[in-house]
């Protein structure tokens, strides 16, 4: 099984109630996952105000899609996948 590759080797937990802009600033690899799911506001001024869930809901994502996207973001951030 892959191990986290971040500096402290701790598992990072991204949640849907976290600020979108802060996530992308701190973990740039998350931006690609968000855009793959159609959440293109990662480069928009709104990202500093919206949580992941708020941004996703604006883009008409279902709860299941949001959960899947957050899971993929966590994989990207922790395992560089």
From TrEMBL:
Any stretches that span the bilayer, and where are they? none
Q: Which InterPro entries match?
A: CHP03980_redox-disulphide (IPR023883), DUF1858 (IPR015077), ScdA-like_N_sf (IPR038062)
Q: Name one Pfam family in it.
A: DUF1858
User: For this UniProt entry, which residues form the secretion signal?
Assistant: none
- Top-rank taxon of the source lineage equals Bacteria
Q: Where is the DUF1858 domain?
A: 14-66
Protein name (Swiss-Prot/TrEMBL): DUF1858 domain-containing protein
Organism classification, top ranks?
Bacteria, Katanobacteria
């Amino acid at each position: 099984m892959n191990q986290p590759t971040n500096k402290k080797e701790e598992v990072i937990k991204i949640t849907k109630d976290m600020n979108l802009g802060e996530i992308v600033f701190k973990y740039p690899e998350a931006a690609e996952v968000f855009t793959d799911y159609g959440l293109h506001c990662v480069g928009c001024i709104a990202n500093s105000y919206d949580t992941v869930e708020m941004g996703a809901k604006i883009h008409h994502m279902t709860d299941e899609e949001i959960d899947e996207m957050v899971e993929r973001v966590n994989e990207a951030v922790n395992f560089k996948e």
